[in-house]
Amino acid sequence: MSTAPSGPRHGFVEVADRVFHARFPQWDVGVGLVLGRDGAVVIDTRASGVEGGEVVTAVREQFPHLRIGHVVNTHVHFDHTFGNIAFAGATIHAHDHVARDLESDAERIKGLFAADPGDGPELGYTAADVADVLATRLRGPDRTFATSATIDLGDRVVTLAHRGRGHTDGDIAIEVPDADTVFLGDLIEESAHPSLGSDSWPLEWSETLTSHLGWIGPATVVVPGHGRPVDEAFVRGQRDELRSVGEVLRERRLAGMPLADAQREPDGRLPYPLEHLAAAAACVWAQLDPEAEPAR
Question: Which of 82, 85, 100, 173 lies at a CB distance of 3.0 to 4.6 Å from 139, suitable for a disulfide?
Fold first, then answer.
């Protein structure tokens, strides 16, 4: 168990009308909070049961009489879902694929942490935080959907939308139309470049963001999975970077370049370090020719 609390850096900060955001030190994960007449929605729950409990405590300290009726997971990864277990009484919403993959992805990440806790100080976590991750019991979503869903808070409606694959195949946007605010999870990151892991879709990610941009205007507050809220221009810029990644990797695959060469050959069009694109390259190789490469 963690020996000290790790609450939000500056509490829940209002980024739009009754829409709040907090950043927590471990993995620099953001948590959203949308208030309505009939309760509240929490968006993402951090990386363990302990950390989820800290979110509940932070909400109660700032809003003593608030009822958390709903939780939404932006995607399947542990740093956004493992805290679900702390939200007793709330209905948890997520994409269908989160329900499908939560147990297998949890087994994967727990195996990785058990084998190698990693470089904790760089990402704000400690050995105790890793122990909390490993000890967490999973709680999956209660309600899932394929393309869209809504949560009625009495005086406002929150919309959940899946518009394509990117960071994972189950990424969703949480839209608060009356406040012109959108939470995009790890489809967008502000405190680091996007994470292109072994379950990402580099050839489709930019088009998924293009689809989301149809609901984002110049004044829209866009909340990423990690980092500070951003605007439309930031989303467009990161979309263009991800398009470049997909184009370069596609060219290399179709040209017949061996995967190992593609993972180490520089290209001025690539916006991110090569060492952070190795998994993305493997995903592209598998997607374009599943029979020729090991399954992702």
Answer: 85
Residue 206 lies in a domain: no
- Closest residue by Cα to residue 84 from 147, 131, 137, 151: 137
Nearest Cα to Cα of residue 131 among 119, 114, 107, 112: 114
Altogether, the residues listed in the chain come to a count of 296
Structural domain includes residue 222: no
Long-range contacts of 144-151 (CB under 8 A, 24+ apart): 144/93, 144/94, 144/95, 144/96, 144/98, 144/99, 145/93, 145/95, 145/96, 146/95, 146/96, 149/93, 151/41, 151/70, 151/72, 151/93
> Taking a C-beta distance cutoff of 8 angstroms, is the pair 242, 194 a contact?
yes
The pLDDT tens digits for 220-264 are: 999 999 999 999 999 999 999 999 999 999 999 999 999 999 999
CATH number where 157 lies: 3.60.15.10
Domain containing 59: what range?
13-162
pLDDT one-digit tens code per residue, 100-135: 999 999 999 999 999 988 766 667 899 999 999 999
Cβ neighbours of residue 275 under 8 Å, at least 6 residues apart?
Answer: none
Residue 82 DSSP symbol: G
- Distance, in Å, from the CA atom of 174 to the CA atom of 74, rounded to the nearest integer, reads 8
Q: How far is CA 209 from the centre of its chain?
A: 14
Q: What is the pTM of this model?
A: 0.94
Whether 125 is in a domain gets the answer: yes
